[in-house]
Every structure is written in structure tokens, then in C-alpha cells.
Amino acid sequence: MSILTRPSPSVESLRRDPGAPHRHLDWSLLGLSLVLSCIGLAAIFSATKGSGPDPHTGMVARQLLALLLGLGLMAGFAFVDYRRLREWAVVFYPGALILLAGVLVMGQNVKGAQAWFGFGPFQLQPSEPAKLALIITVSAYLSSHRHELTPTRVITALVIAGLPMGLILLQPDLGTVLVFVVVTLTLLAVAGVRARYLVALLVLGMVGTVAVLNSDLLAQYQRDRLLVFIERSSDRDSGLAESYNVDQSETAISLGGLTGRGWGNGPQTQDGRVPEQQTDFIFTVVGEELGFIGASTVLALFLVLSLRVLRVAQLAREDFGTLLCCGVLAMIMFQVFENVGMSMRIMPVTGIPLPFLSYGGSSMLTTCAGIGIVLSVHMHRFR
Amino acid sequence: MSAEQPALRVALVGIVVVSMFSALFARLYYLQVLRNTTVEEVFGGPRLREVTYEGVRGRILDRNGKVLVDNRESIVITIDRQQFAELDDPEGLELRLARALNGAGYPTKVSDVAARIEDPRYDPLKPVPIAEDVSTELETYLLERLYEFPSVDVVREQIRTYPLGTLAAHVAGYTGAINSEELKAREEDPKAYEPGDDIGKAGVERIFEGELRATPGRRTIEVDATEREIGTRSDVPSTPGSDLQLTIDADLQQHVEVKLQEALIAARKQTKRRPTDPELRAPAGALVVLDAANAEVLAMASYPTYDPSEFIGGISAYRFNELNDPAAFFPFTNRAIQSLYSPGSTFKPFTAVAALERGVIAADEVITDNGSYELEDCTDTCVFQNAGGTRYGKIDLRRAMTVSSDVYFYRLGEQMWVKQGSFGQSAIQDTAREFGLGTVTGVQLPGEASGLISDPAFKKARHDDNPTAFPFGEWFTGDNVNLAIGQGDVGVTPLQLANAYAALANGGTLYAPSVAKALLDHDAGSVRRSYAARKIGAVSLPGTVRNPVIDGLSGVVSDKDGTAFGAFQGFPLASFEVAGKTGTAEVPPKADTAIFAAFGPVPDARYVVVAVIEEAGFASETAAPLVRQVFEWLAGIRPVPAPVPAAAPAGQPGVSVGTAVAPAATTVPPPATAPPATAPATTVAPTTVAPTTVATTTPPSSSTVPPTTVPPGPGTTAPQRAAAPLLLLPVSAAVGAAARRRSRRRDRSAIVAGRSSCRS
Asked: Which residue of A55, A377, B274, B473 has the lowest C-beta tally within 10 Å?
């Protein structure tokens, strides 16, 4: 790569093999992940301690457990050479498809979506790890055909991405499908697919979306969510119950002001007025209780994290690493944008978790593993 | 863009990322800084909440300061019905709550919890009490886990407690949660009520509600957006209600209640004279002790009674219906003021007074009693007989009263009607009403019956109103003859009768009977207000009228031919002379009602005692011995504890206060408009339950009874009064039995001739 910037090697590091992976662990990514996760724990505690809809202090402990497992997973992916993921794709991808198909048969139906496997007290949402399987598989396919991205190959890549998306649409979980769409488009763009193909894809996608909206493929609540966003209805009596969530969420964030109401003192949060405030609407807790200072800090942390991942993408030794980083970046960034945007009524309401912050083990493990892959790209950039 | 420029594409991704974040930052800045919403906009301004809380209700004390009704704190588990209705899993909550209660040692079925929640008796807007009086451990357990028990709450309440159990339950009454009607009626009450507040439902708890109720405290608190308390604006503490001191003497009341129950049990054990006689079920009775000088009620007992503690925290609908079942003989009825009884021969003194003061007869005028009386100018069967047809020979008024000659009074009744030109159409009735009979006495107790003294106008009005049921509208001589001996359409409450005798005893002043002595400052005892005797009437009773009547009544007890002579055998009449009158009123088809009304010590009588026992047979054998036992207590004679435990002492029979020992079924005393004598018969279930414990009083040992005082049999002289102090013993069933047997039927009014056919 032409713009690689090598650190100037000291005498000591030269003697001790300066290219050894463990010497290039990106502490900033690890630190950012930890800080964001801790803010998440604090927010979950505040959201679940009061008279909210699901008062359960056990959620904090479960989230902490997920974080510890996630850190282990992150370390595992970091120290494994990311290039070996190319071979593992043949395991990950069929595995993800089997899980996604299995959840439709044996999964639990929670709030209208057949998206969870239940293992006693724990649940697994297979669409979360499927995101990583998709990133790895599509990245591997595109990077192995670096300079020959013919329409056939692009279509092949779309089929690879389309199979899990179709299965998730059957659950149905529109939000996660949107993440898959964004990740796939990002990978195609970064891999060098011609711009006109991408434009053609976007047009097709829009037509397809309108077609889907007018068909019976979507559940009523999903259509309502999109319509709420489109119509910008803030009237609770408009018949669209979904607007209630956004009204409450927007009010809560607005109540936060510059400095916030204080941790554990958000009137909306403690009154339990925002539904799903420990999962999808966790950002309202941050916004209301920590104010603009706290919420913009969280956003800033995500921005720094994104730029770090982008930097790793640039530093990557080969295209596969670059694509992996961009895939993970697209995954995290789109979720942040969609989740925070929906809380502030600039995006439609979809059930997408905020990485590191929302309560949920599957999301935490997946995000940590994604960061682990980025770390691996960074650590193995010299050998 | 080309494939050869991946770095550019990555940089483009970076631009997209930064622009997305810019959008988020901008929106965040707009929402939080530019368009900052205040809590007031969302939730409204700082809010004030007014919380009222009931204070401590006044206690109820007896005349000597003994506490009859007190308060204590109780921990109550409640469920909010509205929250409960919105639960996803109400059955699960019921199960968990029942489990928690069982775990804490309060056996509860899940269905019990469900039944409470669905019980329509509880105010739908107020939390339903699920369990009362639970331990502080359970309170702590639940309060720490309220999130596991949505809609459940644990509160502390002041509840009534009854240190002396069921004693004087009919006088004290009970409290319960205010219902919507009561609430509406008290909207303007200075001691504002809220749903769920306690209110007196019966007895003095109801009549003195305004005095007993505490002035509620009011606390104004400031709450934040989430309804959490921030601070207190003002706090006006509650003022406890006044303590109410009754005129009741708890010790006397205790004695009276026990003796009344024993007398009922003894009455049930009598053997019938003839197998065809009605069953002597003695299911119910009443007893009143009045202070003759001011009509203060010293004791008032009604049996069967109830347990006011069953109402604490709300009585279940099932239990309430059970207690109101006819088979329970209506324990909530205070028979002393709510039941009407035909007074029978106890009415004769008032007939005598009516006749004497009008000069119908002179007290010393002697007539001949041949055992029956034939009306003059009567074409049909016009013969009225003494009970059992007994001939008493030549008798004056005193003698007639003592032996309870019906013939003597038949004659008075006839003469007063025949000479209505001189005496008016309602001579007897007017005198009876002067004594307060047939009208409410005004005692401070709810639901008092007014009673009935029939007269020509009443009879006509009743006939005109319903000619089918009452075919005769005309007042016949026979009606007046019947009335003279207290039969016919005459219904009085035991309290009315007692009050009339009190007026007779105190020289003619009629007071409104009173159960309230004073209002006291709560727990302090200083008198806030005392209730003076209320004079409501006066009867002119010159010595020429009163003395012969009282002499005759004294003879009832002390003369060997007196109808209550046997019952008072051994009573120290020399030091505590008692005057009284037996009455055995016919209530066909049921057995006779036994009544005994008495006062003492003569001549300056202080106490009036009236006892009524339903379906008990002869007053001389049931009511009179009961009254004697009350007078023993009033004369300072207390039951001597039996030396040997095996001999069950009087006063401690295994009689449980309540309805359990009452026989199976009976009729209610009829309402005021239909006096007992004419009441239609009510279907009577077979008598099944027999009392398990012998309640007959037994003399402690024969050695303590001087043999000389025991009348050997008929024809003995009056008891040797010199020996009276040695006779401080409960009356024995054996002592004087022979004497009573002699006087058995004398006071019973037997009407042979058809009432309707007697026209003159």
C-alpha cells in the first residue's frame, strides 16, 4: 500500500522484532470500547432501577457478563491472524445460514419477531453474529477478485449477502436487514465496484423498498414505524401508536438540556415513559440524564472510534483487511446513526441496538468481535 | 472513482461517517440546547398534593372508665384493583401473594385472594384489603419486593380492638368502611371523609360518629415530575376523637350477659306440660337494667349477639349473609330496643293506674274472682277466663296484682270502655302513652322501634287500609278487655317497658333513657361534655294511685301467693325489697314469651330490670329467676366461686358468645305495624342444636343453705327474712320450685271466648 506510514523503528524494537503482532495492539480502540460499554452499564442501571416498565437490577449484571465474554472474544479475534478468516468463512457463512433458518423453526417469538434462541435464562439473536459472517464472507469474496469485479461477480456477492437478509426478513426484522444492506453496499463501494453499478443498485433498492412497503411482506408495526417517520406525526391520537415512542424519546432528550438532569434523575426515564429504554432507546437515558455534554461525548467517542477503524482500514496490509475494517465500520456506524437518529426523530423507528450501550448480549458479543477483527488487522499489518 | 484508488474510497467512507455524525451532533444540539424543554412544560409546574389521614378514633368506656372499645395499629396488605386489572399475569400475582402469606404463617388459598379482589362490597376505587393484621416481618418482606408484587401495597391502619370481647356489642356497635351513600351524605362534614374511611355502622359508634371520629390531619406536600415527594408545605396533625363514656357498667353487663345466656339454656331444658305444646326453644332474649332516678342504661343485653371484631378490615359477604340468615336468629338485632313484645300481664300496673286515677275503681274495693268473667250485655260467647281457670275469690287491687288475676282487670277494661262517656275511648292507652309505651324512648341508639298501643282510631285506620286482612274496624269491648291485660295489639320494646316501670318507681317522672354519660378528652379523661338526664314527661301519681300498685307489685315477689314468690325465694327482700310483675304473653303458634319487669329496692327504687325471653313458657320459671340473679348482683351479692372445680360454677358455662348455641330457626320479632299477637306464623325449622353445657345454677353445697329457709312446699309462710343475709347464694332450681309450680299459670291470660264475637 502506498500510503503506509511505518513507525520509525528504535534500536530496541529492531532487536526484538518490531513487527510482532502483540506490539501493535491498538489501545485506543480497546479503551474506547471499554469506556462506551461502561457508560452503557450506567445507563442500563439508571433505566432499570426505577418504576420503569422492566425494573430489574439483574440486567446490569447480565450486561457485565456479556461485556466480559465480549472482551474475551475480542482478544481471540485480535490475536488470530485475520487472513485466516478467509478460510473460516466457509464455516461461518453456512453456520450463520443454518442458525438463521433454525431460529425460524425453533426460535422464540418476542414482540412479533421470531429472532431469538432460548437457552434457559440466556437468549441468542443469530442475526447479530450473522452480520460478522456476512462481512467476512463478502470481504473474502470481493478481495479475492480484486481487479475483476464484473457484473456477474457483483451479482454473486449480492446473492451471498441476500441469502441471510432474506432469512432475517422472514423473522421479520427490518432493522437488521437495513444494517446488512448498508454493510454490503459499503463493501462493494470500497472494493472498487464501478460507480454506475452502485447507482443502478441504489435505484433498484429504492424501487424494491417501495414494492415491499406496498406488499404484505412487512408487519403492520414496521410499516407504521416507517410511516411515523415519513409523516412526522407527533399527535398521539393520530392512530399511530409508534409515534408515542418517538415523542417520549425526543422529549426526554430535550429535557436533558446542556448538563442533563443528573444520573438516575431523569423524569422521563425514572417514570418509565420511554418504552424499551434500556435496549433500543438507551440513548434517551444518556440524553436526558447526562445532557448535551454527556450525549455529545458519547457521540464523539463513537466518532473517534470510527476514525480509528478507518485509520486501520488504511493501514491494512492487504485489501481483505481494508474491507473487513470498512465492513465493521459500516456495521457499527450505521447502527449508531440509525439508533441515535431514531431517538431524535431524524430516522425511522427500527429495533436496532446502540453498539456497546444497549442491553443485549448478542449485540455486545458481535460488536466486540468486530472490534477484535479490526484489532487483528492492525496488529498483523507487518506480517 | 476507480478500482485503482481504494484509499480514496476509504476516505470517502470517512467523509460519509463524519457527515452522519455532524447530522447527529446538529440534531442533538438543536434538541438539547436550542430547543431545551423544561420539566414544567412536560409535566406541569411544581405540584402540590394534599394527603389526608384519619386520626385516632375515640375510645368507648363504661361508666367506671373500663375500656370497651379501643384502637390499635394493624398492618394490612392491599391490592389496587385498577393496577391489578392491567397486569399481564394476574393469576401469577395471586399465586405469589398467597405463597408469601402462607410462608409467613397466614394460611391463604389463591381463591381467597381472588375472592377478596372480586368482592363487590369493597369500594372499587380503593385498594382491597387482602390480609389484615399481618406481622412486621411480612410487611418488610413485601415492601422490599414490591416490584415482584405489582398492585400490592402494605399500609398501617388504626383498627378497632375490643378488650372485653363481645361485651355490650349491641350498645357499642361496630365500624366499617364508609359506603357511597354515607359518603355523599357527609360531603360537607367538617371532619371530611374519604372513600375507605371508617364510619360507625351500629350502636353508639353510629350515633356518636361525629364525636368519636377524629378530625383528619392534612399534609400538603410538594411532588416532583415523577410524583416523588420533595418537601412538605404544611402539616396539620389530626385531632383524636373524643372518648365516649357510657352509662353501662361493664361488670354488671358481663354478669347480665352471662345470666341471660344461662337463662336461655335453662329455659330450653324445661319439659313441656303437654306434648302438643309448642317447643320451648328460647332462642333469644333481652335484658335491660335502668337507673330509675335518671333512666341511665346500666346494662343492656340482647341474645344472640355478634362479635364486632369480625367487622375489622371488612366482614366477608358470605359471613355477613350467614349472620343475617334466619337460622342465626338475627344477632345484629338489639332486641332491647328493636324487637316488639306483647307485654302481657306486665301491662297491668298501667291499666291499674288508668283505672285508679279516673276513679273507675277504688284500690280497696273488693270484687269476687270466680276464675272467669262474663261481659255484660253480651249476646255471644262472652266469657273471659283466668289462666288455668283459677279462682282467686275476694280480691282488691293489691291482691289482684300480686296473684295476677285477669278477671279483675277484665272488669276494669270493660268498665272503662262501657263508660267511655266518662273516661274517653282510650283511657288505658292514654295512661300507657304517658308512661312512654308505644313511642320511641329516644335512647341514643340507632334503629329503635316505636312500638304500638292499639286504640279505636288505629284499628279503624288499619281496617280501612286493608279490609281483607283486618275485617273488623270497630273497637269491641273485648278489645278493651284484652288490652287491660296487655294482650291484643300491644307491642313494646323491653327498654320502653323498663322506662315505664322506672317512671312508676320514681314517682312519675319519665326520662329519655340514656346510654351516654359523657364525652372525654381522648386518653386524658377530662370531661368535655356530660349528658344530663333528659326529662320527657311526667305522670301524675298521687300516693293513692301509686302506693297500692307498688304494694301489689311487691306482693308478686314477697307474698307466698305472688307469681314470682318462688323465683325470689331466699333473696334478701328485707334489706332489698323488690317489686315486679311477671308476664307470659301468648304468641301463637310459638311458645309464650316470658317477661319479668321489676324494680328495687322499694320504696326508693334505684334499679329497674326487665327481662324478656322468647318462646320460653312461664315467666315465673324463666324470666323471674333471671331478674332475681340481676338483683342479687345489684344488691351486692356476688356469685361465690365453687370450692370444687368439678361443680361448674355459675357464670362459667361453656356458652360461647355468638350464635352457635342458638337453635336452628325462628321468626323475627315482627315490625311495629304488626304486633306479635297477630303476626303471621313463620315457618319454623326443626329444633336441632341443643346447648352442650348445663347452665343451671347450682347451690355450692347444701350445708351452706340453712334448712329453715327452704320452703317445704305449698302452703308455707313467707320466707324468714331474718335469715336473708345467709342466703347470699345464686338461686337454685330446686329452691322454691314447689312455690313456683303453684303460681305457674296465674299470670297467663287465657281468652276463651272468640274475640270477634264479643260485642256489647
From this structure: B274
CATH classification (class only), B49-59+69-201+212-241: alpha beta
pLDDT bucket at B711, cuts 50 / 70 / 90: very low
- The pLDDT confidence band at residue B190, using thresholds 50, 70 and 90, is confident
Contacts with A310 from chain B: Cβ below 8 Å = 10, 13-14, 17
Q: Which DSSP string do the residues of B266-279 spell out, in sequence order?
A: HHHTPPPSSTTSPP
- Phi, psi at residue A257, to the nearest 5°? 65, -155
| pLDDT, tens digit (0-9, with 9 covering 90-100), for B12-50 | 899 999 999 999 999 999 999 988 777 777 776 667 777
CA atoms of B366 and B356, how far apart (whole Å): 14
Question: Which of the listed ranges A7-11, B144-148, B162-166, B376-380 does the model predict with the highest average pLDDT?
Answer: B162-166
With an 8 Å Cβ cutoff, are B21 and A346 in contact? Answer: no
The reply to whether residue B31 touches residue A344, judged by beta carbons under 8 angstroms, is yes
Q: Which three three-digit cell numbers place residue A371?
A: 472490534
Choose from B13, B145, B224 for mutation: most chain A CBs within 10 A.
B13
pLDDT at B378: 75
Contact A41, A60 (CB under 8 A): yes
Cβ-Cβ contacts under 8 Å, A236 against chain B = none
Which pLDDT tens digit goes with each residue over B313-352? 677 778 888 888 888 899 999 999 999 999 999 999 999 9
* A344 with B7: Cβ contact below 8 A: no
> A296, B33: Cβ pair inside 8 Å?
no
Question: Which residues on chain B place their C-beta less than 8 Å from a C-beta of chain A?
Answer: 1-4, 6-7, 9-10, 12-14, 17-18, 20-21, 23-25, 27-29, 31-33, 35-39, 42-43, 147, 224-226
CB atoms within 10 A of CB B406: 32
- Cβ burial B583-616 (10 Å sphere, 16+ → b, else e): bbbbbeebbbbbbbbbbbbbeebbbbbbbbbbbb
Q: Report ipTM (2 d.p.).
A: 0.90
- d(CA A54, CA A86) in angstroms, rounded, equals 42
Residues of chain A found within 8 Å of residue B31, distances taken between Cβ atoms: 250, 253-254, 287, 344
d(CA B625, CA A241) in angstroms, rounded, equals 81
Q: Taking CB atoms and an 8 Å limit, are B29 and A149 in contact across chains?
A: no
Residue B298, pLDDT score: 97
SS3 A124: strand
**Contacts B3 to A, Cβ<8 Å:** 146-147, 149, 192
Domain locations in chain B as residue ranges: 6-36, 49-59+69-201+212-241, 250-640+670-757
- CA–CA min distance B90, chain A (Å): 16
CA dist B44 and B252 (Å) reads: 63
Q: Do A299 and B28 touch (CB under 8 A)?
A: yes
Close Cβ partners of B95 (under 8 Å, ≥ 6 residues apart)? B110
User: Does B686 sit behind a cis peptide bond, omega within 30 degrees of 0 on the bond before it?
Assistant: no
Question: In the predicted model, is pLDDT for residue B492 greater than 80?
Answer: yes
- Mean pLDDT of the A35-52 span: 84
Q: Do A268 and B42 touch (CB under 8 A)?
A: yes
Written as one letter, the residue type at B521 is: D
The whole-number average pLDDT for the span A240-257 is 80
pLDDT digits (tens, 9 = 90+) for B652-704: 333 333 333 333 333 334 343 333 333 333 333 333 333 333 333 333 333 33
* Partner residue opposite A341 with nearest CB, options B10, B24, B224: B24
- Mind telling me how many Å the CA of B115 is from chain A's nearest CA? 28
* B752 pLDDT above the threshold of 70: no
Q: Do A322 and B33 touch (CB under 8 A)?
A: no
Question: What residues in B contact A146, CB-CB < 8 Å?
Answer: 3
